[in-house]
Amino acid sequence: MPELPEVETTRRSLVPVLEGATINSAEVGRTRMLRRQPRPADFADRMRDRRVESLGRRGKFLLGHMEGDLTMVLHLGMSGRMQIQALGAERPAHTNVVLATDDAEVWMIDPRTFGFVVCLTPDEWDGSPFAALGPDALDALPRSPQLGAAITKRKSPLKSLLLDQHLIAGLGNIYADEVLHRARLHPLRLGASLDAEEVKRLRASIKPVLEAGLRHGGTTLDDLAYLLPDGRAGEYTQRLRAYGRTGQPCRTCGTPIERIVVTQRSTHFCPTCQPAD
DNA sequence: CCTCCATCCTGTGGGC
DNA sequence: TGCCCACAGGATGGAG
Q1: What nucleotide is nearest A265 when CA is compared to C1'?
Q2: Separation between the CA of A160 and the C1’ of C12 (whole angstroms)
Q3: Residue A77: strand, helix, or coil
Q4: Mean of all residue pLDDT scores within chain A
Q5: Is the CB of A160 under 7 A from strand C?
Q6: Which of A38, A172, A33, A34 is nearest to A113 (CA)?
Q7: C-alpha A112, offset from chain centre
Q8: Measured CA to C1', what is the nucleotide nearest A264?
C-alpha cells in the first residue's frame, strides 16, 4: 500500500508534531512490530525522553533522527498508516505503536503487522539491511548512465527490478506499473535487454509519476486501508493509467489493459503502448 | 552475487 | 445470510 508518495505524504504530516518534540513514551502493543529490533526491550527505553531532531525518509522507510545519534526506522508494510491524535484519545483496533509527546499522540495502525519500528545505534544501523537501501527514487535518482549500468547487468524482468529496493528505493507495485506504462516498456522486458534510449525513457518516467502521486495525496484503493494521517483518502487513484485497470481502455490508445503476474505480484500494462519486444 | 520462492499477518470481496 | 477461498499497497531469508 504505502509507497513513496504515501510515505512522503505521511512524513510531511508528521513533521510538525515530531520534529523538535521529545518522546515521553513509546508503547508497542504488538511485540511482532519490534522483530527487527536486535533486543526488542531496547526500543521503548531508547525512545523515552529523547528528542526527535528531524524526520526523514529513504524510499518507503521513515527515518527519525534522534538525539544521541540514534535512528528510529519505521516502515508501514502493506497495511500500516499513521494518525495524529489528542493525548488519551481512544485507540482503534490494531493501534500497534503509540508515540506520545507533550502535545499529541502519533499512532501506527497496522492490521497485518508487516510494518515494524526500531531504534538503532550507529553500529546497529551500519550492520542493518537499511544501510544497504538503494538511492531514493525521488531525491537521489541516479543519472541515466549509472542507472543503466545497474539495470543492464540484471537478467530479471523490469517489473522486478523496479521493486528491488537495493536498486532504487521507493517504488512499489502500483507505481512500478505506472512508471513502466509511462516509459512504454513491457514489464517482462529483461533489464539486460534495454538500450540506452530505453534506459533514459525509464529513468525519465520515475519522478513525474511519483510527483504526480505526491501532488494528489497518494493512492487509496477500494478497501480504504490507506488513508492520509488526517483521514482523507488519496486522490491519485482516479489518475492511475495501468494499476488495477484490467480490461479498461488504455488512456493513451484505448486498448484494454492486461493483467499478468510477475514474480508473484499482479502487474498491469497496455499491450499496445508497451510491446513485448 | 543473482534469482526465485515461501512466509509473515488480517481484512475484504466475490462466488456459491 | 453464511461460508470459504483468493487476493491485497512489502520485505526478508534461505535455497539453488
Answers
A1: C8
A2: 15
A3: coil
A4: 94
A5: no
A6: A33
A7: 16
A8: B5
- CA–CA gap between residue A156 and residue A98 (Å, rounded): 40
Other beta carbons within 10 angstroms of residue A134's beta carbon come to 18
Among protein residues, the one whose C-alpha sits closest to the C1' atom of B13 is A223
Catalytically active residues of A, by annotation:
2-3, 60, 265
Strand C and A267 CB separated by under 7 Å: no
Is the full-model pTM beyond 0.90? Answer: yes
In the block, cell 520534529 appears at A19
* Nearest-nucleotide field for A166 (CA, C1'): C11
**Percentage with pLDDT > 90 across chain A:** 91
Alpha carbons A66 and A242: distance in angstroms, whole number? 40
Q: Does domain A4-132 have CATH number 3.30.365.10?
A: no
Task: Write out the three cell numbers for A143.
Answer: 543519472
Q: Which CATH architecture has domain A144-269?
A: Orthogonal Bundle (1.10)
How far does the CA of A257 sit from the C1' of B14, in Å? Answer: 21
pLDDT of residue A224: 47
Q: Where in chain A is the domain with CATH 1.10.8.50?
A: 144-269
